[in-house]
Amino acid sequence: MQRPIRAHEIRSRFLNYFAARDHAVVPSSSLVPANDPTLLFTNAGMVQFKDTFLGRDPRPYKRAVTVQRCLRAGGKHNDLDNVGFTERHHTLFEMLGNFSFGDYFKPDAIRWGWEFLTEDLGIAADRLVVSVFSGEGESAPADDEAYELWTAYVPKDRIYRFPAKENFWAMGPTGPCGPCSEIHIFHGDKAPPDAGVAGRGPAYEDTRYTELWNLVFMQYEKFDDGRLVPLPKPSIDTGAGLERLASVLEGVGSNYRTSLLTPLIDLAKRLAGAPAHDLGAGEAPFRVIADHARATAFLIADGVFPDRDTRPYVLRRIMRRAIRFGEKVGLENLFFHEVCKKVVEEFGEAYPNLVERAATIDEVVRGEEESFRRTLKRGLRLFEGAVTELPAGETAFPLGVAAELYDTYGLPIDLTGILSREKGLTLDEEAVKQEVQARQAAGAAAANLGGGDKAIDNLYFRFKERFAGQASFTGYAELSGRGNVLALAVNGVEQTAAKEGDEVEFITDSTPFYGESGGQVGDTGIAEGDGLRVEISDTLKPTGDLHVHRGKVTRGTLEVGRLVTLTVDGARRAAIRRNHSATHLLHHALRAVLGTHVAQKGSLVAPDRLRFDFSHPRPITPSSACRSSASSTR
Ligand code: SER
């Protein structure tokens, strides 16, 4: 009998298969997208190639293959609550992808996708079904071409036609996009031939199917106004989840039973003194711990540390959720760093930056667990007290206490939700968020904090709640553009208008202004309209997505709903860009001269200077630099 293919082997098989077909093997990029302020985390293999598809970031190759670490947690597609409770939801996962930048198109993408699965990996062809785009509107016709191509491999009664919801892929509201074809596996022996039957097939939440591979035929660029403009050169972007392929090849029926995750689950069980065999529904806490330890170790290795907002807050929530589930299964002492260490052992070969950052991962995880356990102890006392005091027959946990647990004890609202459900109580998490905001606003007003930090933070939080996803950033393509004012604040307090002389903060539905992030300072410039001028002295991105312009009204009145022309100080932006490129050159040079262990710890990119923080175990002297340089060129 043929030896089964193990999960960790699939990566190299995939890379080799496409390398043999002239694809450049490109390393996985960071989970924190470089130069993409519109995205919280790298959530697909194509993210590092976004601008290449659009023709703005030419590469020395036309075909690429990657195994990309991806994270889907936080933001619009937030599956966090499901993770651990289904067979295939994850925060962190690995995506295998092959890419063509204006080179090959549908025929080769389909042929290679099919052949890799059925010939190289040996998956039975009659267990597979495929889908193509059925068309929507005038600008996006049905993909008959893909349909015809598939008929060479798959009987017609297993080729499904689905609408845009399933079979049109777009990176976001704007950017490269196109119809796609998905390859699904049927978990029985042979897939049913019912592609012509309405309401049947893999698009209908039918758990007998699992999507294995998405082949995106990048054909258009989508613009703010919904227009689809054909790309100069049609391209290919494919994505297959490693965990799902592993589940099929190892024949285990669950991503969590693959050799990718079982070592982590087994360790967590050993630490908790739990039985080694499958605990059925009782597996969930261990699955949560395993999944979240992967996300934690990978995120810290990519320079994200747990904290109060945006990316750091997503990490904090993930870590705290895992620690809380650990508590539930009796892990009373610090344990999470042990599981993260196991992640480094298991994944370090494929992702060497985990090994380089092992000590940091350990230190950060221990620190966070210690502080969270202190918080949790105090918070849990308050929680238990509130439960005991509930009037008989009350089935909802009190919003006020949940808000206090969040505000004072740092207990994430979703965790209070979990605790409540464990007690058979309900918790309206949205209402808690509103309560938190109301309290913070009231607190700020009472203390007359005006522009104080807390009021401001809270203001951003409220903007985000109302406007997330409604604002777009156009600053890669243009330095000047128009936008409607969505909201504004004067001295940290939300208003509907700001008059001459007011210090103002405002957001618009579209802006070319880059917001400070990743150490790169925000843009400055002006906003103008008839009789109106606002000098913008800074742009922030406090919640990771909305671009908040900060400045002073020097003429006229700025009002919510008003259309303004926003113009970035172009010379300053160009200087910032040069310094940004210089940090990459410096990083590269340091790694070449001192060694590849040199890791970026932080940076500041401003128009007049840059600062680059990095780790190196010894002081650098001119001679050590020369010595290392000589040895590295041998
Ligand atoms: N970008 C597509 C996806 O994420 C294919 O890689 O599914």
- What is the number of domains? 4
Helices, by number, come to 18
Low-confidence residue ranges: 443-457, 627-634
Number of strands: 22
Tell me about the largest β-sheet: 9 strands, mixed
Instruction: Give the overall average pLDDT.
Output: 87
CATH architecture of the largest domain: 2-Layer Sandwich
Question: What top-tier CATH class of the largest domain fits best?
Answer: Alpha Beta
Portion of residues in helices? Answer: 25-40%
Name the hetero compounds present: serine
CATH homologous superfamily descriptor of the largest domain: Bira Bifunctional Protein, Domain 2
CATH topology of the largest domain: BirA Bifunctional Protein, domain 2
State the end-to-end CA separation. Answer: 46 Å
Which descriptor suits the 3D outline?
Answer: globular
Strand content: 15-25%
Protein architecture, described:
The protein is of the alpha+beta class and 634 residues long. It has four domains: 7-255, Bira Bifunctional Protein, Domain 2 (BirA Bifunctional Protein, domain 2, 2-Layer Sandwich); 261-449; 458-568, Beta Barrel (Elongation Factor Tu (Ef-tu), domain 3); 580-633, no CATH class. 37% of the residues lie in helices and 22% in strands. The chain is built from 18 helices and 22 strands. The strands form five sheets. Strands 1, 2, 3, 4, 5, 6, 7, 8 and 9 form a nine-stranded mixed sheet that branches. A six-stranded antiparallel beta barrel has the order 11-14-18-17-16-20. A hairpin with a 4-residue loop joins strand 21 (599-605) and strand 22 (610-615). The protein starts with 6 loop residues before the first helix and ends with a helix. The site of serine (SER) has 10 residues, from strand 8 and strand 9.
